[in-house]
Amino acid sequence: MSCSCFERKPGIYGCEVNNIFINETNQMVEFQCDHADGLSNDDVTFLTIQLSDMQFMTRSIFDSFVNLSELTLYRITLGQLVPTDFAGCKLKSLTINHNWLREITAGVFAACSDLEYISVGGGILHTIDENAFVGLVSLEKLSVFDVPILEWTHFFDPLPHLTKVDIFVSVFSRDEFPSTLLHSLTKLQSLNVSMYMAREFPFNFFNNATELTQLSMIVGSIRTIDPFIFQPLVSLECLEINSHLISSIHQNAFARLVNLKVLSLASNDLSSLNQSTFARLSNLVSLDLSQNPLITVSPAIFAPLVSLEYLILRNTFRVNLTAVHLNNLRTLDISWASFFRILTENTFINFPNLEVLHMAHNSLGNLSSNVFRSNTKLRYLDIAWNGLNNILETNFLESMVQLEYLDLSDNWINSADPTMIIETNNLSYLNLSRNSCISDEFHRNNMTLLVDNMEQCFEHFYQTTSTIPSTIPDENDGHVVAMLDVRLVGILIVWNFVNSVS
Question: Can the keyword Ubl conjugation be found in this entry's annotation (predicted)?
């Protein structure tokens, strides 16, 4: 069996196998690897087997690669696993995703005593026995996803060293989380849980999770957050609650979360918030309230958030920004808020450190020359898809001496000379596409300028926004609050410029 070998990063060497055929129990396979000079099977530490007709595990894997520490079995016809399949292995990481397994039985991984990470799910996997991971005394991270039913109550009891757990299932044996499910996980630091059929949390669900620092929940049928559920989580720093149905949050729900730095309540059904909801969150750095039908919110609700740097109000509610005082705010997103029709010189006056402002897809008709007079640190401004017309005649950019990125696309600008913006400001990127004042000649004359400056500008803003705290701080796929991948946006914008010229 031929293997494609490569170095993932310096010192980490492994192989990838496609189209392997194993149709008999204990069938032996010879792995023929295209090793680089000086390397052999003994240097292989990770192996990926994918897209293959491999119905059974084979001892050949561990016989051929004696130092194998990471194994991935992905989209193969693997139909069963038995405890002897892993006898004598030295695996630290095991991924078994989107295969033909219907169930994982008790003790099947008992021989993998060195295992630190395991991920199972997808495909036609239907059931995982509550004792499936017994014996994994070194396990620190566990991921279970796309499993319809889990009948667990004391599942984690034999796994006391778990620090990170991801559970993405449809329903437990009851329409609620088993109250004792997490009680043995006193070292748990990160929990991502998704269960669409859950109607409520047991009040003592997090009682022993005092070390938990990151919690992300997608719970489709929960409508209320009571004042007790989060009280034990005194170490929590990042909290994301996505239900689509949460309509009520008790005013004391977050009262004990004094260390919280990131809070996302996006995509829920909140129509109002109590003025005391965030009263104890003085350390909060990032708040996302986007995609909620909030009708109106008192500016006083933001008063306790003295450390807030990132505020996301996209497609959310009516709020009088002139009455909101956030001296440390660096990023503000009020895009898709059609009620913003007029901005005055006092709208952003209380955000003196603002650097990034998103206002696309609103109903702005014009901007006064003094609207950003207090925002001298602004570097990124997106006001695309509005009703702006004579904006280029108001000299609204005069106070923004540090502005580098400006998007004015898809407005009604129909007069003035757009080249003046490029000549009189320090912009690295300017988008004026799909405005009637932009001629083909302007595109041809300034395309070189845009392309030459684009990569440097995008890389700068990418590095800047990448420092925004993550609601799911994972080394591989963390979700970054308020992050805009401006490099991708830039590719799309330049594509629009090229098309308009051609």
Answer: no
